[in-house]
Write a structure and sequence with these properties.
- Helix content is 47%, strand content 14%.
- The protein is an alpha/beta fold and 377 residues long.
- The protein has three domains: 63 residues; 142 residues, Rossmann fold, CATH 3.40.50; 142 residues, Response regulator (Rossmann fold).
- Strand 4, helix 8 and strand 5 form a beta-alpha-beta unit.
- Helix 11 crosses helix 12 and helix 13 packs antiparallel against helix 15.
- The structure holds beta-D-galactopyranose (GAL).
- Beta-D-galactopyranose binds next to helix 5.
């Protein structure tokens, strides 16, 4: 019940038509394509809402045609358990598969890739040997996708890639070669643009010291990751597109990690001091580290410096509400986890699956932070 309310509220928050169907309803969640072409009327959504409120795990399971969900074995590997965002994602994925799709907990194996592609490859090969029906893989290195796909395809096991997007040409190759693989994620360009807009929409457009130039530091995730590349590029593009003159003072990789975010920001503050107007962080964990450094340096967010992240971790959304951080962007792990699970089960049940599903991001500013907090807490 609690989650149903959350999912409903999320649909409202993101102004999109969200699939109200239970697991295996085969309707995608809020993919961009589905969102733009959605034809579901408000009345239908209402009807589905009340339907879903009564849905039990058994009823949801029964709705899945094909293989009995209690017999489906899903192999999952997450690039690294020690990642705040992927922990939220992983927990929701597991909960959804068991509680809403009717899978047995013991038939879901979730492995920690430990940020080691070799280790993850062993996990994938074990899933193959043990005859898993489908895999959901958060690659350590997106560049390993061809090997993973080839081995899974040879074994007849479909793969749903999540979070770290393979090359676009590869996604097309799955279609051209009839390979059972898909990617479920979010378009990182959108999250970068939202970050830049959050700064551009401030009264002074981020020019904290009023000298006519917005000087910033960029705390990057793992730069092999398109999320890091696009957020870095698009946040600044949104700012310059709004007519703001910018200057980059520091750009460093923080690998999505809070401690590294703190160190990079502390060093930048001691080197460039009051010149820094904005701290852009590719994710919230690093932004939390940056906030520690900013406070330790005696600076005050939203007074003499601005700070934005991505993900919408609870702590960060609370900071946005309490004027301690400028903004963040909700990386919808509910939508992504549900779509990934739905598509995995669609593969198992022989249904058609597209090659890419994108879930929208949502801007988080003081205006809607309370609403977003309701959804994620
Ligand atoms: C991003 C997320 C980061 C980190 C990364 C891992 O989408 O914003 O916090 O989890 O994925 O690939």
């Amino acid at each position: 019940m609690r989650l149903t309310k959350k999912v409903m509220a999320m649909a409202l928050a993101s102004c999109m038509v969200l699939s109200m169907a239970a697991c295996g309803g085969s309707q995608p969640a809020e993919t961009t394509a589905a969102a733009t072409e959605a034809t579901t009327t408000a009345a239908e959504a209402e009807a589905e809402k009340s339907d879903e409120a009564e849905t039990t795990a058994e009823a949801a399971a029964a709705a899945v045609e094909g293989k009995d969900p209690s017999e489906i074995k899903v192999g999952i590997s997450i690039y690294q358990f020690a990642d705040n965002f992927m922990t939220l994602y992983r927990e929701e994925l597991q909960r959804y598969l068991v509680e809403e799709c009717g899978l047995k907990a013991e038939n879901i194996s979730i492995m920690d890739g430990k940020n080691d592609q070799g280790e993850q490859m062993n996990q994938i090969r074990n899933f193959i040997t043990q005859g898993y029906d489908v895999m959901i893989i958060n690659l350590v290195q997106a560049s390993s996708e061809p090997t993973v796909t080839e081995e899974c395809n040879a074994a007849g096991i479909p793969v749903v890639y999540i979070n770290r997007e393979p090359e676009a040409e590869r996604e097309q190759a799955w279609v051209d070669e009839g390979i059972k693989a898909t990617y479920v994620g979010a378009d990182a360009r959108q999250s970068g643009t939202f970050q830049g807009e959050e700064i551009a929409e401030l009264d002074n457009k981020g020019d904290a010291d009023g000298d006519g130039v917005v000087r910033y530091i960029m705390v990057q995730g793992d730069p092999e990751n398109v999320d890091a590349q696009y957020r870095t590029e698009k946040s600044i593009e949104a700012l310059t597109g709004a007519g703001v003159e910018v200057e980059e003072l520091v750009k460093m990789r923080g690998d999505w990690d809070q401690t590294k975010g703190q160190e990079i920001t502390a060093n930048a503050l001691s080197q460039h001091g009051a010149k820094i107007d904005v701290v852009f962080c590719n994710n919230d964990a690093m932004a939390l580290g940056a906030l520690q450094a900013i406070e330790a340096a005696g600076r005050t967010v939203n007074e003499d410096i601005y700070l934005v992240g991505v993900d919408a971790l609870v702590e960060v959304v609370e900071h946005v509400m309490n004027d301690k951080m400028t903004g963040t962007v909700f990386n919808d792990y509910f939508g992504q986890a549900h779509t990934a699970a739905d598509k995995a089960l669609d593969f198992v049940n022989g249904k058609d699956v597209d090659n890419v599903y994108m879930v929208d991001y949502v801007k988080v500013t003081p205006e809607n932070a309370g609403e977003i907090l309701e959804l994620i807490k």
